[in-house]
Amino acid sequence: PADVETLGRSTWTLLHTIAATYPPKPTPVEQNNIRDFFRLFSKLYPCWVCAEDFQAYMKKEAIKTESRDAFGNWLCDAHNEVNRKLGKPIFDCSKWEERWRTGWKD
Ligand code: FAD
């Protein structure tokens, strides 16, 4: 349905933007904050089938919080897992910062 798509698009924008503003060298507190956020996000995301699959993904592929690069790539991989499930194109994760932080160079 259209609202699952609108919600999804807006939510990925929020999540990738959080990755873009996550510190290159996060403190232990900053790492805990992102873990807590994702633990709760995966329970509260208001598309219940999406949330269930995302929780299962996080059990399989533990969140990486040690740097912006590690977290941004983990999130890109998680998004690609959903892309794969929905038959959407796989995004080149070497370009996530260009897409979400620094802007496309053109
Ligand atoms: P989106 O997938 O919303 O992507 C938005 C933009 O992000 C793209 O235009 C592209 O520029 C960029 N992008 C694409 N892939 C990546 C990537 N890997 N890394 C970084 N940037 C990227 N929908 C369902 O129908 N079933 C589900 O089970 C489901 N699970 C979801 C789980 C989560 C956690 C979230 C946030 C959303 C989920 N959705 C699900 C919604 C779905 O992922 C899409 O958001 C929705 O279908 C709209 O797709 P879109 O084509 O506009 O692009």
Essential attributes:
106 residues, mainly alpha, Four Helix Bundle (Hemerythrin (Met), subunit A), 5 helices, 71% helix, 0% strand, binds flavin-adenine dinucleotide
Please specify the SSE layout and strand pairing.
Blueprint: H1 2-20, H2 28-44, H3 48-60, H4 68-86, H5 96-102
Helix pairs in contact: 1-4, 1-5, 2-3
Flavin-adenine dinucleotide binds next to α1, α3, α4 and α5.
Description:
By secondary structure, the chain is mainly alpha-helical. It has one domain: ERV/ALR sulfhydryl oxidase domain (Four Helix Bundle (Hemerythrin (Met), subunit A)). Helices cover 71% and strands 0% of the residues. Helix 1 runs antiparallel to helix 4. The longest helix is centred in the first third of the chain and has 19 residues. The termini are far apart. Flavin-adenine dinucleotide binds next to helix 1, helix 3, helix 4 and helix 5.
For the record, give the distance between the C-alpha atoms at the N and C termini, rounded to a whole number. 34 Å
Return the average pLDDT rounded to an integer. 95
The CATH class assignment is Mainly Alpha
Helix content: over 70%
- H-E order: HHHHH
Q: How would a textbook summarize the main sheet? A: none
Query: What would the CATH topology be?
Result: Four Helix Bundle (Hemerythrin (Met), subunit A)
Bound molecules: flavin-adenine dinucleotide
Number of strands: 0
Quick take:
Helix 1 packs antiparallel against helix 4, helix 1 (2-20) crosses helix 5 (96-102) and helix 2 crosses helix 3 (48-60).
